[in-house]
UniProtKB/TrEMBL annotation:
PROSITE patterns: HELICASE_ATP_BIND_1 (PS51192), HELICASE_CTER (PS51194). Pfam families: Helicase_C (PF00271), SNF2-rel_dom (PF00176). It comes from the Bacteria. Residues 485-647 form the Helicase C-terminal domain. Keywords: ATP-binding, Helicase, Hydrolase, Nucleotide-binding. InterPro entries: DEXDc_RapA, Helicase_ATP-bd, Helicase_C-like, P-loop_NTPase, SNF2-like_sf, SNF2/RAD54-like_C, SNF2_N. It comes from Herpetosiphon aurantiacus (strain ATCC 23779 / DSM 785 / 114-95). Residues 109-286 form the Helicase ATP-binding domain. The lineage of its organism: Bacteria, Bacillati, Chloroflexota, Chloroflexia, Herpetosiphonales. SMART domains: DEXDc, HELICc. One of its GO terms (molecular function) is helicase activity. CDD domains: DEXDc_RapA, SF2_C_SNF. This is Helicase domain protein.
Length: 968
């Protein structure tokens, strides 16, 4: 049975193929000679091996000659068809979108590490997912990994899967509780793991962390693991069984020092240094001993090899390229410049009355606990009554619906089922999570905290709670000043063509707000208002958002189940915080869903809804949000909450329930030192915020990777663009090829520069069949653009867009094997009489195939298009520089006609001369191979792999095209 070298040309099944790398010795992996990946196949050698024979690339047919525009089209079609491009970055040929230059910095860092271990902590909206997936794609294409897993919160699994498939051509299998059973049934036997059978997986970290799944995952753990939102897996400083399990899982993954590990988080530093260094210790054990406030220069340099953290201001203009982040504006409520949407409880005497009664009830809960705080046996009761007071107030001020829902559950409970003395056995994490806003939302975070109110109040208080619930029921709609404050704002946003998201804390509030706004705004047929909450499954949320996005005008009311990791920028461009989050992280996470790269609107609008005479909102603003917002406006960065959840509760209690000086007699039984200590807590919070701001500013300065110069990235990007083509190449090729096949693009006009209509019906059938699935709503044409961020209803067309690929494949196929009745836009040969040359000049369009080999991996195939030029002189040929030859193919113009017979004669003569140029073509191929080896070694200069990359050309290079230029 014959052995065929990777890169060689063979004939099988009545056509020519290029041999590709194969993972099995009995499988011959083949790609059609035209370069169409979609028609690749595998030949099982024990059965079909005898039918495979060696072959040569066919020469151009002079009878199919065309003009030089057709030659340019052939070159660009071949470049845009390359998937194994011979550039310094092998992955760029397979990407669905060209990355921003700054997103290549983590890739350069990764290629200089062995193994790759990085913490990518760029700001929300900068593109951490793209940066991590780019590294994965590159390592796959270099043959350094064969399997990987993304570990992420369960609600991000589908988004990761989509991003990998749409932008990186990787089909990953989602593994979580809802898919695990079905996946197990697909396994060939019980001894193999899902993570062995499926090479690329996206798994819920909360599914994998459990003991019954953890061991199976670790046994079959792939060579590379990405951990998204890794701050949720830092080592906890206090009780938190879920976070501890996540940390133990990632710690076990990191213990294999040969495993590649990518950690992602916009807020890796939670404000608690021990938690932060526990994440750094996953990269290298010694990092866990570092003091971040006292790093030596050697420690800083070593850490900088593994840690990148950039704010938006660091990358908005990088490599002389502007990244079009949207401008964030705050909605102004009135002429005074007030940035928040404010309301007053006093506007509704009924709501004010309810608040006063509930606030007094909460005071009683807190102060009763304060009197007993020194008794050890009631420590649990004290904490829960604190939480019950806060939960009750928060629900009442969220909405009448949330208040009623939370209060009625307790009021309806049978008084005989609970004694007045609270149980001392409960899950601390379960109760506290209902009060604190965790940095990362959990599945049940938007559920009303009825269990806290139940435990925090006694059966004898049920009657009062029922009375509160009945009052809340009467406050819906017109009697709710908070709701009424946003009605005109939302109406104005919709009128101004903004598509807002309104974030609420509780499910009941979100549903109530959606219902009341529908009633108040009376939306027409072109406007949809929907609520999406934790009540919906992940699949239902995705379906609802897709349904809503199809409406010309839309309003999404959501809970924090949609506040993290989910990309909503294509359909929404404004955020209203209906309920203030009790964690500044949530504030930025919510706004980051729309304020990010990829937002087509130039401006996004934000607003906080705040009660001017609402002590709850004032306490939250004072303790949690005001400083965080100020830091973000000053530094352009988000700083996580720098204190523990327990400190937050203490600070809120101190702010809300400290007795006014005129009412001290009410609290004479309370030790004055209690509130003195609370005031001290507030002072500590202020100090911690100041320290966090200073640390964040230093961290962003130290680890923004300023040492990787833009010029360094520019060099590698220019080499890749020269091989694969850039946006200008795509635009030129798509426009020219559509023109030549009878479907010219139509410009939209000056109001929409670089926007074009594609008349689908005029495209040849092979192209039309691949493009028609892009049409929506029975449209007959596509609206496309080639640069920037596509607006709604417009497709951004890059080198791997279906339209580009269909046109490139068609141009190559028809040039190599023309079919009767189909237009042929590209030509493999041509003759031009031009003033651009003084002697007869030959241009050969070459496809150089090269094998890249390292000591650790199987040889990889790389390809490059090169234009070789030769001038016929007395006694032989003179070679042109590749740049000069390319300039002639691209820019030479016809200055005189040439007869058809003379054209064929010149091309036959040129073909006869090709053997005399074989040595020159071989030399050129070796030169390109040496340059490729140099570029691969250059980007890996800091690893032990440096200098061990060898590149060998596969000879002879393919002569895709042959063109003759004659002097006038």
């Amino acid at each position: 049975m014959a052995q065929f070298r990777v890169g060689s040309i063979v004939r099988c099944r009545n056509r020519e193929w290029v041999v590709q790398p194969s993972t099995h010795p009995d499988i011959l992996q083949l790609r059609p000679l035209g370069g169409i990946d979609g028609e690749s196949c595998g030949i099982y050698l024990p059965i079909e091996g005898d039918t495979v024979t060696t072959a040569q690339f066919p020469p151009p047919d002079p009878a199919m000659a065309g003009d030089f525009v057709a030659g340019q089209l052939l070159r660009n079609a071949a470049r845009l068809s390359l998937r194994n491009g011979a550039g310094p970055f092998r992955s760029l040929g397979r990407l669905g979108a060209r990355p921003r230059p700054y997103q290549l910095v983590p890739l350069l860092m990764a290629l200089r590490l062995d193994p790759v271990r990085l913490l990518i902590a760029d700001d929300v909206g900068v593109g951490k997912t793209v940066e991590a997936a780019l590294i994965v794609r590159e390592l796959l294409d270099r043959g350094e990994i064969k399997r990987f897993t993304v570990l992420c919160p369960p609600h991000l699994c589908d988004q990761w899967s989509r991003e990998l498939e749409q932008k990186f051509g990787i089909e990953a299998t989602v593994v979580r509780s809802s898919t695990a059973a079905a996946l197990d049934r697909t396994l060939p036997n019980a001894d193999i793991s899902v993570f062995e059978y499926y090479p690329f997986t996206v798994a819920s970290i909360d599914y994998i962390k459990h003991d019954r799944h953890r061991a199976n995952f670790l046994r079959a753990c792939p060579e590379l693991v990405i951990v998204d939102e890794v701050h949720t897996a830092a080592r906890p400083s206090g009780p938190g069984s879920g976070q501890q399990q996540r940390y133990d899982l990632i710690r076990a993954v990191a213990d294999d020092q040969e495993r590649h590990l990518l950690l992602l988080s916009a807020t890796p530093h939670s404000g608690i240094e021990d938690a932060f260094v526990s994440l750094l210790g996953l990269l290298r054990p010694e990092f866990e001993t570092y003091s971040m406030t006292n790093l030596s220069s050697k420690q800083r340099d070593l850490l900088a090899q593994h840690f990148v953290q950039r704010r938006r201001g660091d990358v908005v203009r990088w490599l002389d390229e502007e990244t079009p982040f949207p401008k964030r504006e705050h909605m102004l409520r009135d002429a005074t410049g007030n940035r928040d949407i404010t309301y007053r409880l006093a506007q509704s005497s009924a709501y004010r009355s309810l608040f006063n009664e509930v606030f007094e009830f909460a005071r009683e809960l807190v102060h009763e606990s304060l009197r007993e705080a020194n008794a050890p046996r009631v420590a649990a009761r004290t904490r829960v009554r604190y939480w019950a007071a806060l939960a009750l107030l928060r629900c009442v001020m969220s909405s009448p619906a949330a208040a009623e829902k939370a209060l009625m559950t307790r009021a309806r409970k049978d008084p005989t089922t609970q004694a007045d003395d609270l149980s001392l056995t409960f899950d601390d994490e379960l109760f506290s999570s209902a009060i604190h806003d965790r940095s990362t939302p959990a599945a049940d975070d938007d559920v009303e905290p009825t269990h806290v109110i139940e435990e925090g109040s006694t059966a004898s208080e049920a009657a009062r709670l029922q009375k509160f619930a009945e009052k809340a029921r009467q406050l819906r709609g017109a009697n709710d000043p908070k709701l009424q404050s946003i009605v005109p704002i939302v109406a104005r946003l919709l009128k101004d063509d903004f598509q807002p998201i309104i974030y609420c804390r509780y499910i009941a509030t979100a549903k109530y707000v959606a219902e009341e706004l529908t009633r108040a705004l009376k939306p027409g047929n072109d406007t949809r208002i929907l609520a999406v909450t934790g009540d919906h499954s992940e699949e239902e949320r995705e379906s609802l958002i897709a349904e809503l996005s199809a409406s010309p005008r839309r309003l999404l009311v959501a809970t924090d189940c949609l506040s993290e990791g989910i990309n909503l920028q294509e359909a929404f461009n404004a955020v209203i915080h209906y309920d203030l989050p009790w964690n500044p992280n949530r504030l930025e996470q919510r706004e980051g869903r729309v304020d990010r790269y990829g937002q087509p609107a130039p401006v996004v609008r934000m607003a906080l809804v705040r009660g001017e005479d609402n002590p709850i909102d004032e306490a939250v603003m004072r303790v949690l949000l005001r400083k965080a917002v100020t830091i973000h406006r000053t530094l352009g960065i988000s700083v996580p909450l720098p204190v523990s959840n327990e400190t937050v509760v203490d600070a809120l209690i101190a702010t809300l329930f400290k007795p006014p000086a005129t009412q001290l007699t009410m609290f004479e039984a309370i030790d004055p030192a209690t509130f003195a200590a609370a005031e001290q807590t507030l002072a500590e919070v202020e100090l911690q915020w100041a320290q966090a701001e200073h640390q964040a500013e230093q961290s962003r300065t130290r680890f923004a990777q300023h040492r990787i110069q833009p010029q360094e990235v520019a060099r590698e990007l220019e080499e890749s663009d020269a091989v694969l083509g850039d946006a200008d190449t795509v635009r030129s090729f798509v426009r020219a090829s559509c023109e030549r096949i009878g479907a010219p693009l139509v410009a939209l006009g000056a109001h929409a520069p670089d926007h074009w209509r594609v008349p689908i019906i005029q495209l040849p059938l092979p192209v039309r069949e691949r493009v028609e699935p892009l049409l929506r709503n029975k449209a007959t044409e596509l609206i496309i653009t080639f640069t920037g961020i596509a607006a709604e209803g417009v497709l951004l067309v890059g080198r791997n867009h279906p339209l580009t690929m269909a046109l490139a494949d068609y141009a190559l196929e028809t040039a190599l094997t023309p079919e009767d009745g189909l237009p042929v836009p590209a030509a493999r040969s041509g003759v031009l009489r031009t003033k651009a040359v003084e002697r007869r000049t030959f241009l050969a369009l070459l496809r150089v195939r090269m094998l890249i080999a390292t000591k650790r991996n199987e040889p990889l195939l790389a390809e490059e298009l090169v234009v070789a030029g030769f001038v016929r002189e007395p006694g032989g040929f003179r070679s042109l520089e590749p740049a000069a030859a390319l300039d002639l193919l691209t820019n030479a113009l016809p200055d005189a006609n040439i007869a058809h017979a003379d054209r064929e004669h010149q091309l036959h003569s040129a073909l006869d001369l090709l053997p005399q140029l074989a040595a020159d073509l071989t030399s050129l191929a070796h030169t390109r191979a040496e340059r490729l080896a140099e570029s691969h070694s250059r980007v890996r200069t800091a690893t032990r792999m440096a200098g061990k990359v060898s590149v060998e050309p596969h000879l002879p290079p393919d002569v895709l095209g042959l063109y003759v230029l004659l002097p006038v």
